[in-house]
């Protein structure tokens, strides 16, 4: 098992290299090239100033070097084995010795901040959204799927299947706009905040909800939850509908299998047949698609983050792409790619738990 | 197809015909298909349904003019003619093999397109106000207008954000710049349908070629191809789409519609390649492929004439979900402001409903949103039913 995991982890490297290279080349070959809009804005300055700024970018970030050299330098920066570098007083990096070092994500050209701190601010938000959504989606989908499969062919099941397909087809942007418009707008019901991750005064609040002389105060935790209701709702329904259909069809397939008929013939109760025999087998396809659901949720949260103005990875990526901010684009690609590949790996490992016949020895 | 469904199955139906018959058996896919037919009609005849220019105007000075026809663009003429040709080829020449009908249709419609784009030169300036002036002056004796008497770009600044209840002529209200929402919706259906179908075709062609080669040759080709597939599958598709659209040069903006079709196409081929590869890996061991190879047929013939028709059914299922996905992708991009600039798009209209002054214009969220939803739902219904029709197992379960 350990062998298998190590081999899979090593195989991640070429895929990650390929991904970052594709994204880097698209960015580099686009008009304006790397750092495009940062340098284009210089047009309004006089020539001496703009030359000085251009000089600064070339010196500090090496944007005048050939594209391949820039990519290799970035690889050297993120790899744990490579040349250590140090900036001199003008900010130009100099390479010193070869050996093990801490991987570094570099510095943003647009914000002049270390990319790692930017990611450290944005990633928890996206992960929080996904970690709240995924378990809810799975639990609801499994329960509803079982319910629909048990009463298959009845009015409820037929109605449920079609309405699940409809639910899956509902565009996120429409639901988000309608939710904001009706539940978070001053003209209609103003129950939820229209965007953001916390209220402005959240940092002055106590952590838990409590009662003061002024009345009930919701506290930091409840305030955050209150802000997350609408975004989570938007992310929830689509994958829920899809997974529920999957659970239903997979359970139906198992319920018509021979081993279930044998179990019935032995005289087991319906509940024993369902939970003891058919249930675990039916989970297999749901685990397989976990690998597809999580990257989908990461990408889906781009739209959600944009609509609800949450400062997560999606927003960071869009801003970085618009500025052609080399380090930030590559870092967001690397991290979201790494996360989705790790999800695929975890899904493969979970497979062994659900199905003892599968083994990776 | 309904005629086929009512009769007991004649013995000489091809596999594809049987699949189509089974697909259209349920109510859901029929309703879905009906909506798609309505949408196609709206898309093809958009300028004849929603236009500020009347078909014909008789004025008091005795002159009869046809403003609508004078302002038609080449594509507005080419699309209906091509649709009529397709209908003719489908219904009239039923005896001729489908290949020949398709070939004739492709040739004829290319000729029509070329003729339209070469000969039709509409006036560059749109003067929507002239007819309205004439009406105001009392010069018009009679006029035949379109059912929706507003063009999508007919902006009347005095009629901003008109709710649907405000005017009987504005069934779905107006936008922030005074353009008619219903008219824009009808014209946007053209863009949605075009992007959905063409982007999916591009993805399908790439996917079938790459997947077919991978499945047929296996070995080293398969290994390299699968790494490529893995790379594209690991970058979330929508993220890649955002990057590609964001880095598009601004000079290409007039052709953004076509660029977006290509971009959505080249980010969506991975799924098809996987399906075709799996099918071809299964088929390559079968006897008919061996005999085709033994006959000395060229590779293209083995791949596309012999293997592809046998492995096409699951790919068609994916394609109908793919069209829904492409329409969603376009509307989401337009919603984020990265889509088409001046042309009407459902997603862009949706985004206007909450932007700006902060008050919520429900009609600009509800109508375009429902249009996206119904179209995506229709394609998904058809795809779902197609999948059930080609899968003998689900057919059995559904019968239980």
Molecular structure report:
The complex is a heterodimer of chains A (361) and B (400). Chain A is built from twelve helices and four strands; from the N terminus they run ααααββαααββααααα. Chain B has 19 helices and three strands. Classes of the chains: A mainly alpha (361), B mainly alpha (400). Chains A and B meet through helix 1, helix 6, helix 7, helix 8 and helix 10 of A and helix 10, helix 11, helix 16, helix 17 and helix 18 of B.
Question: Main sheet of chain A: which strands, in order across?
Answer: 1-2
The overall average pLDDT of chain A, rounded, is 81
Order of helices and strands of chain A: HHHHEEHHHEEHHHHH
Could you tell me the number of beta strands of chain B? 3
DSSP helix count of chain A? 12
Shape, principal axes of CA atoms of chain A: globular
Structural class of chain A: mainly alpha
Query: How would you classify the quaternary structure?
Result: heterodimer
In terms of per-residue confidence, which ranges of chain A show pLDDT below 50 for 5 or more consecutive residues? none
Provide mean pLDDT of chain B, rounded.
Answer: 81
Biggest sheet strand order of chain B reads 2-1-3
Helix content of chain B: 55-70%
Quick recap:
The complex is a heterodimer of chains A (361) and B (400). By secondary structure, chain A is mainly alpha-helical. Chain A has twelve helices and four strands, in the order ααααββαααββααααα.
């Amino acid at each position: 098992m350990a062998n298998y995991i190590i081999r899979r982890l090593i195989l991640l490297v070429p895929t990650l290299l390929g991904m970052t290279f594709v994204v880097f080349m698209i960015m580099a070959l686009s008009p304006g090239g790397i750092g495009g809009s940062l340098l284009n804005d210089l047009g309004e300055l006089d020539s001496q100033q703009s030359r000085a700024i251009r000089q600064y970018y070339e010196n500090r970030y090496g944007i005048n070097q050939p594209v391949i050299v820039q990519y290799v330098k970035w690889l050297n920066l993120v790899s744990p084995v490579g040349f250590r570098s140090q900036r001199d007083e003008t900010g130009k990096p100099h390479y010193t010795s070869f050996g093990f070092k801490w991987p570094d994500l570099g510095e943003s050209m647009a914000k002049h901040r270390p990319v790692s701190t930017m990611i450290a601010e944005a990633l928890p938000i996206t992960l929080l959204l996904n970690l709240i959504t995924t378990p809810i989606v799975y639990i609801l989908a499994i329960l509803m799927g079982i319910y629909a499969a048990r009463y298959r062919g009845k009015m409820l099941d037929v109605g449920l299947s079609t309405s699940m397909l409809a639910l899956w087809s509902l565009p996120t942007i429409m639901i988000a706009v309608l939710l904001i418009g009706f539940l978070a707008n001053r003209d209609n019901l103003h129950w939820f905040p229209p965007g953001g991750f916390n209220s402005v005064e959240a940092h002055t609040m106590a952590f838990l909800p409590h009662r003061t002389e002024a009345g009930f105060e919701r506290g930091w935790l409840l305030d955050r939850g209150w802000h997350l209701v609408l975004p989570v709702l938007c992310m929830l329904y689509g994958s829920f509908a899809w997974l529920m259909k999957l659970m239903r069809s997979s359970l139906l397939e198992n319920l018509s299998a021979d081993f279930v008929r044998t179990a019935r013939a032995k005289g087991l109760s319906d509940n024993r047949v369902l939970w003891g025999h058919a249930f675990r087998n039916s989970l297999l396809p749901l685990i397989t698609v976990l690998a597809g659901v999580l990257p989908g949720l990461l990408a889906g949260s781009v739209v959600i983050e944009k609509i609800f103005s949450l400062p997560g990875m999606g927003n960071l990526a869009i801003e970085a792409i618009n500025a052609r901010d080399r380090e930030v684009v590559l870092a967001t690609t690397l991290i979201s790619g790494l996360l989705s590949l790790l999800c695929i790996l975890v899904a493969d490992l979970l497979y062994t738990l659900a199905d003892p016949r599968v083994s990776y020895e | 197809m309904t005629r086929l469904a009512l009769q007991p199955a004649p013995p000489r139906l091809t596999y594809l015909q049987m699949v189509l018959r089974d697909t259209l058996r349920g109510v859901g896919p029929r309703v879905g298909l009906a909506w798609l037919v309505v949408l196609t009609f709206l898309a093809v005849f958009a300028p004849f349904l929603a236009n500020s220019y009347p078909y014909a105007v008789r004025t008091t000075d005795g002159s009869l003019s046809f403003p609508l026809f004078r302002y038609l663009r080449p594509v507005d003429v080419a699309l209906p003619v091509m649709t009529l040709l397709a209908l003719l080829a489908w219904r009239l020449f039923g005896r001729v093999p489908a290949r020949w009908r398709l070939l004739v249709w492709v040739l004829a419609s290319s000729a029509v397109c070329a003729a339209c784009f070469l000969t039709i030169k509409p006036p560059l300036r749109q003067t929507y106000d002239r007819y309205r002036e004439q009406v105001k002056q009392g010069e018009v004796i009679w006029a035949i207008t379109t059912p929706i008497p507003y063009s999508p770009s007919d902006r009347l600044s005095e009629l901003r954000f008109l709710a649907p209840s405000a005017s009987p002529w504005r069934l779905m209200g107006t936008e922030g710049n005074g353009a008619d929402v219903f008219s824009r919706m009808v014209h946007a259906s053209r863009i949605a349908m075009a992007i959905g179908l063409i982007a999916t075709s591009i993805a399908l062609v790439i996917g079938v070629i790459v997947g077919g080669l991978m499945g047929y040759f296996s070995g080293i080709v398969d290994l390299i191809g699968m790494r490529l597939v893995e790379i594209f599958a690991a970058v979330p598709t929508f993220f890649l789409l955002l990057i590609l659209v964001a880095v598009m040069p601004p000079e290409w903006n007039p052709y953004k519609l076509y660029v977006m079709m290509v971009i959505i196409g080249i980010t969506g081929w991975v799924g098809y390649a996987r399906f075709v590869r799996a099918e071809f890996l299964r088929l390559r061991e079968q006897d008919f492929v061996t005999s085709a190879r033994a006959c000395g047929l060229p590779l293209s013939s083995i791949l596309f004439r012999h293997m592809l028709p046998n492995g096409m059914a699951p790919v068609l299922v994916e394609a109908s979900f793919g069209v829904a996905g492409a329409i969603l992708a376009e509307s989401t991009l337009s919603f984020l402001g990265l889509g088409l600039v001046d042309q009407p798009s459902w997603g862009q209209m949706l985004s206007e409903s909450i932007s700006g002054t902060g008050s919520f214009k429900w009609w600009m969220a509800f109508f375009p949103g429902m249009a996206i939803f119904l179209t995506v739902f229709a394609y998904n219904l058809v795809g779902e039913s197609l999948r059930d029709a080609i899968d003998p197992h689900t057919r059995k379960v559904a019968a239980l």
